[in-house]
Structure formats: C-alpha cells, structure tokens
Design goal:
Distance between the termini: 29 Å
Strand content: 15-25%
Radius of gyration: 18 Å
CATH topology of the largest domain: Rossmann fold
CATH architecture of the largest domain: 3-Layer(aba) Sandwich
CATH superfamily of the largest domain: Vaccinia Virus protein VP39
Structural class: alpha/beta
Number of domains: 2
Largest sheet: 7 strands, mixed
CATH class of the largest domain: Alpha Beta
Number of strands: 7
Order of helices and strands: HHHEHEEHEHEHEE
Shape: globular
Strand order of the largest sheet: 3-2-1-4-5-7-6
Length: about 230
C-alpha cells in the first residue's frame, strides 16, 4: 500500500522530476539484479511461498514464538500474501487469519481476505466484528510505501503506515496480544518505539537476517497492551 507524492510544478519541477525518474530507473535495475540472484527468492519459489518476506516473519517467529495453534491473526497490507500464508500454516487448525489490502490477494487456504482500506470506517468495523468477542491475538504489518529514493519523503510515509497499523492494533488486540510492524530507521523511528514502550509491556526491535543488508528496515515487536 503506497502513498503518491504530489506532482511537481513548473519548469524547475520538471527538471527535478527527470532526475528522479533516472534515479528510480537505476534503483529498479539494481533491485531486479538483486532479486534475480537472491537466495531467499529462489527458496520461496521452491517452497511455494508468495514472497521472500516470509523468511523475515519465520525468523521472528522462531526467535520470539509469535504463533500458536488457534490464534486469531490480522495481516495488514497483506498482498501478495506471503505473511498470511505462513501465519495460516502456524495457527491452523482452529485458528484464523484475516488478510487485508487494497490490492487483490489470490485465495489462500485458511485465510479470509478483506480487499479494502483498513482505515475506512466501514472496513474497520467489518474487521472488528470478525475478531469479536475475543479480540486479535496478533496484528502484523509488513507495509511499506512506494519508495521515491528520497529519504525525506519516504521516511514520513513509512512511519505513517506504522502509525496506522498501531492504531488498528490498539483497537483490536486482546490483553495478551502481540503487534509486529515494519519500521525504517530514521527520523521518527525512535519516537515510535518509545510510543510502543508506553503502550505495551514488552517491546523489541530486530532486523532479520533475510532483510537485505543495505535496507534500513527493522521490525518492532510489542506484547501485552497496557489496557
């Protein structure tokens, strides 16, 4: 789920836009080269997972025991469904995974998809009803904005998505629930972690080995909301 920057205006804006397009083109080529030779990409394909991101979640699960049979899980910004796919494997039978995204998600066994903006009032109410009366055991988000390559633009967008995920977690988690969200290290990330520490009993931040080394992404994990 991405945010779109306002269009540049005027001749000087056009010049900057050309430069940005060239920069994005270089980044895209680098990403394609990395993607084509990435061991996690090859492993995901071999195992039938929809994305390499599943290995980030698996590592976090193996270290912090995020999942148990019978859990109720919400996956925000779930497309293409790799995290939901892994979660379903871990919580079924008896559990439930709700995958929410603006983009279509091909059907997954044990996963109920909600194609909507989870911040929309009607969609939020629909999701809340799915978790009644017990509440969610885990709310997780691997959301990231469409990156422009400009940190001053990308960082606030990424932080905003984490804040939206936190707001959803605040309204849905039960008293023993867990929240997991992607963060990008930079302006505002430390403040976000401090906010988590004020709202949850336990908070850790970790960069999985499956994250690309040059990426600023980390994951914040928080347990037991202070209700």
């Amino acid at each position: 789920m991405g945010l779109v920057a306002p269009a540049a205006r005027g001749l000087r804006g056009c010049a900057r836009k050309d430069s940005k397009v060239a920069g994005r083109s270089k980044q895209s080529k680098r990403w394609l080269r990395e993607h084509s030779t990435d061991a996690h990409v090859r492993e995901a394909r071999a195992l039938g997972y929809r994305s390499r991101a599943v290995f980030k979640l698996r590592e976090l699960d193996e270290r912090y025991h995020l999942f148990n049979r019978g859990m109720q899980v919400l996956d925000l910004g779930a497309a293409p469904g790799g995290w939901s796919q892994y979660a379903a494997e871990r919580v079924l039978p008896g559990g439930r995974v709700i995958a929410c995204d603006l983009l279509d998600i091909a059907p997954l066994e044990g996963v109920h998809t909600v194609i909507a903006d989870f911040t929309d009032a009607q969609a939020a109410e629909r999701i809340e009803l799915m978790f009644r009366p017990r509440g969610a055991d885990l709310v997780m988000s691997d959301m990231a904005p469409n990156m422009s390559g400009q940190r001053a633009v990308d960082q606030p967008r990424a932080l905003y998505l984490a804040e939206l995920a936190l707001a959803s977690a605040n309204s849905l988690l039960n008293e023993s629930g867990c929240f997991v969200t992607k963060l990008f290290q930079g302006a505002g990330s430390d403040e976000f972690v401090r906010c988590l520490k004020g709202r949850f009993e336990r908070v850790v931040v970790r960069k999985p080995a499956a994250s690309r080394p040059r990426s600023r992404e980390v994951y914040a994990l928080a347990w037991n909301p202070k209700l």
